[in-house]
């Protein structure tokens, strides 16, 4: 992986019908999403850790844990029908078009997986 730039995209929607607030519920003393963020930040392979969310509360927790949250996910990508690939593409488009930053590799890290 030498000389490859890697972004880890962590999707964390605020609305959950099965288990409301699941991404920020405590697990062993930390919000669930923090475990995923910390794993990505400690990886020697990941350069950028971004959380894609539609929730201000999740965004605040993610930023406090060290992840980037440079945008709030659009409403159309915060539904039950929105796919993970659409969320990843939105994040990659943001970095490419708003920050002129492209990546060689992308990792999708789902907090609930």
Shape: globular
Q: Sheet with the most strands?
A: 3 strands, parallel
> Given the structure, what is the number of helices?
3
Distance between the termini: 24 Å
Describe the structure.
The protein is an alpha/beta fold and 113 residues long. Helix content is 32%, strand content 17%. Strands 4-1-5 form a 3-stranded parallel β-sheet, sandwiched between helices. The chain has a two-stranded antiparallel sheet with strand order 2-3. It is globular and about 40 Å long. It starts with 5 loop residues before the first strand and ends in a 5-residue tail after the last strand. The mean pLDDT is 95.
Secondary-structure map:
Layout: E1 6-11, E2 26-27, E3 30-31, H1 32-42, E4 48-52, H2 56-64, H3 84-99, E5 105-108
Parallel strand pairs: 1-4, 1-5
Antiparallel strand pairs: 2-3
TL;DR of this structure?
The chain is α/β, with parallel strands linked by helices and 113 residues long.
